[in-house]
Amino acid sequence: MNQTVVILDFGGQYKELIARRVRECGVYSEIIPYDTPTDEIRAKKPIGIIFTGGPNSVYLDGSPKCDTALFGLGVPVMGICYGAQLIAHMLGGSVSPCKKSEYGKTLCEVDTGCVLFSGIDKKQKVLMSHTDMITSLPAGFFNAAHTKICPCAAFACDEKRIYGVQFHPEVERSEHGTEVIRNFLYGVCGAKGDYSMEDYLARQIKAIKAQVGSKKVLLGLSGGVDSSVAAAMLSKAIPGQLVCVYIDHGFMRKDETETIKKTFSQFDLDLIAIDAEAEFLGALRGVTEPEQKRKIIGAEFARTFEREARSLGIDGYLAQGTIYPDVVESGKNKSAVIKSHHNVGGLPEELGFLGVVEPLKYLFKDEVRRLGKMLGLPDEIVYRQPFPGPGLAIRVIGEVTKEKLDILRSADAIVRHEIGKMKRRPDQYFCVLTDTKSVGVVGDFRTYDYTLALRAVTTSDFMTCEFARLPYSLISTISTRITNEVRGVGRVVYDVTGKPPATVEWE
């Protein structure tokens, strides 16, 4: 049994990042709702509890609050942003609206005598995002940090092992944030660092065997990182019981079908390839709304899986390569729906399977890639460019047609080839065929062709991202090649929007 840190979710947008940082420090983390009964939390035997941030004000009626009995468990507690304010408020301190709100990177001065800031620079840049502030501390607590306009940016009570930080140590923009979290885990909670991907893999293989038994498992294999790692893990856990159905919906990138067949012919699984381009294009005829596209594609996948399972006589389980960001963005865990994912939303309830196997459901992309390497997948799969389940269908704005897909496929191959030659590549790069046409000139003739958008981003978690600062010379090369080599594209533009406010994909 791994040591566990419980992350109490008060609605903060960065709760998954907190979980990820804790795991990066070698400690297993679990996110649970703020109103989880204290007895349930005690039963988990956590070595520490972290309160997340949140959008509410602690002094208002109806704002989320935990059971005060949590502070009597004898388990170290650290609050972040709203979580810090809640600790102060519940234990007798006071929280009030800021005279001036504090957002973005801020210079913070910390007390290096506090265990949270041990070995860290006295002055550091941190990410602030708050409209309330702690104006007085509970008895027995001391102020451990401040900024120019925030008198209490952190506090501590070593005797009770309760701490709080007003800033967000979980985000990359806080210079020493991970060190703050590590100090809490190892300096306060006594963590041993017994969580690793090796340990996770061993536990998942055991869990898969226990869930599946001798039954067959059907997996929809897209060839993407997530489904590929799921396939490799399942083939290791239940060799000879896995049937992978690769559905070529007609929305794949250039030459991908051949690559997928070659790669998975080397694993202990049955691979069945289905050409379903006509069916998927027919289902999308006349459809332009992004969410509707995703729902239709998801439902078509589910129907195809079910039909194939029946024809194969599979009466076991359906496996999916769902990862944590899919769940979050699809509105699970009380999050807002940003966009549906084909392996999370839009699936018919009656699938005809005994259950669903999702071995990657609570992992982030970087963890999935590490597992892929451990399982022996080649680099071309493990570091394959992220690709959405609906494929190029959601990179064609407006109605999806074979003509548009062929244009996009050719342009996408050029983008991947040219950016792929960079020594330090962006974390994701692709192109989008917009539904905008513009006037151009080729030779002495007027043209009226599509505008193609380039998208390249840098990120460590895909929960947030920045647009990649590609060299102008590279953008120029890509633009020249596409407009010269791809018939139907008359103009190329570059997307310079981060996430938020945009998402990585356009649809």
Question: What does this entry look like structurally?
Answer:
The chain has 507 residues and is an alpha/beta fold. The chain folds into 3 domains: 4-188, Class I glutamine amidotransferase (GATase) domain (Rossmann fold, 3-Layer(aba) Sandwich), CATH 3.40.50; 197-382, 3-Layer(aba) Sandwich (Rossmann fold); 395-494, GMP Synthetase, Chain A, domain 3 (2-Layer Sandwich), CATH 3.30.300.10. It has 14 helices and 18 strands. The chain has helices at 15-24, 38-43, 82-90, 177-188, 197-212, 225-237, 256-264, 277-283, 290-312, 324-329, 365-374, 379-382, 402-419, 472-485, and strands at residues 4-9, 28-33, 48-51, 77-80, 94-110, 123-136, 142-147, 154-157, 162-165, 217-220, 242-248, 270-275, 317-319, 356-357, 428-442, 445-458, 466-467, 489-494. The protein has a 9-stranded mixed sheet with strand order 2-1-3-4-9-8-7-5-6, sandwiched between helices. Strands 12-11-10-13-14 form a 5-stranded parallel sheet, sandwiched between helices. Strands 15, 16, 17 and 18 form a 4-stranded mixed sheet that branches. Helix 5 crosses helix 6 (225-237), helix 6 (225-237) crosses helix 11 (365-374) and helix 13 (402-419) packs antiparallel against helix 14 (472-485). It is globular and about 75 Å long. Mean pLDDT is 90; it is low at 331-349.
What's the quick description here?
The chain has 507 residues and is of the alpha/beta class.
**What overall form do the CA principal axes indicate?**
globular
Beta-strand proportion: 15-25%
**Model regions low in confidence, pLDDT < 50 over at least 5 residues:** 331-349
Structural class: alpha/beta
Q: Describe the biggest sheet? A: 9 strands, mixed
Mean pLDDT: 90
CATH homologous superfamily label of the largest domain: HUPs
